[in-house]
Amino acid sequence: MFPLETGIAAIGWKHIVMILSGIVLLYLAIEREMEPYELLPISLGIILTNLPLAGIMPSTFEIFEGLPFEDLGLMGPVWKFGVASWAILPPLLFLGLGAMTDFNALLSRPKTFILGAAAQVGIFISFLGALALGFPIPEAASIGIIGSADGPTTIYTASQLAPQLIGITAVAAYSYMAMVAIIQPPIIKALTTEEERKIRMESTRKVSDTEKLLFPLVSMIFIILIVPRAGPLIGMFMVGNLFRESGVVDRLSDTAGGDLMNIATIFLMFSVGASMSAGVILRVETIGILLLGLVAFAAGTAFGTLFGKLMNYFTEEKINPMIGAAGVSAVPMAARNVQNLGREADQHNNLLMHAMGPNLAGVVGSATVAGILLGMI
């Protein structure tokens, strides 16, 4: 018989299931290279937190809030202050994303902004579906945002509305991002004809440096005035982009999009994984959350594609409706997926830069929708 203070004596079947789940995610991250920067630290966090008595995180959220600081474990303080209470880490990721973003494709064809907005319909469909299944409104909103396929936005929304769902919603969002090439093609092909997939689009116009500088500034002011709760995400995203486009603070831009973003990614993803203890995740509701997230992502893909088809009835310049599917926020995977489908229909078709417009619009759109949900609830 093992001494009672060992983890072997305390481990149960639920811990084993979660450890095996973490190993599966670890395999997908390393062997299949599916969102490795996110899934690898998440998977390691899952494995460590489900080793009993390891002191990584408290085992349940019910006792988490009542624990003194010194009993929160290794990652407890990071999770509590960086994610759940103060929610610092997701906006820091948006700062880095902004510093890495080039809005040229979106600004050269502004009408593609509409496609990014259309793809957010899936969020509301899943939100209503979660309500119909009996989830409370805050949890339903956290589940619906999975459809944006935007990990930081999903984590931020859940941290504000339903901290107990952060782990499973984050894993769902990043998993669906990683599976874009599997989920989207059947939907896109079912909603478009081969002729539509062959549509070639004209080269985008040259965007001036002034436009690139004004866009993040004006967007930041306008969106936050209309949707104040989107401020932390939209604000940091546009600040990072202003670092980039100003051309005078290269060190700040490089740090935001480099070392700072890497540090935030390590702490955010590892603490999210560490929050996924067996007692929190292994519930009947978990399956419903995963399915609703998939519905949201599929619906966003479908609505973006259908709106692309609809736009061709009202615009003189024809667009390839597939670029509407890139309106989900999986950057740049969704845009690359559209490029591959375009090349499959016509090997000389080049849709990548055209798809990047809706793709980036989707990032702005999902953060704005998150702000709307936060403001309503």
From TrEMBL:
Domain of life: Archaea
Example of a GO cellular component annotation carried by this entry: plasma membrane
Keyword tRNA processing attributed: no
Main localization (coarse): membrane
UniProt KW keywords: Cell membrane, Membrane, Translocase, Transmembrane, Transmembrane helix
InterPro entries membership: OadB_MmdB
Pfam families: OAD_beta (PF03977)
Keyword RNA-binding: no
Membrane topology: Multi-pass membrane protein
Regions crossing the membrane: 12-30, 42-61, 81-101, 113-135, 165-192, 213-240, 260-282, 289-307, 356-376
GO biological process: sodium ion transport
Record GO terms (molecular function): lyase activity
Compartments where found: Cell membrane
NCBIfam families: Na_pump_decarbB
Protein name, as recorded: Glutaconyl-CoA decarboxylase subunit beta
Species assigned in the record: candidate division MSBL1 archaeon SCGC-AAA259J03
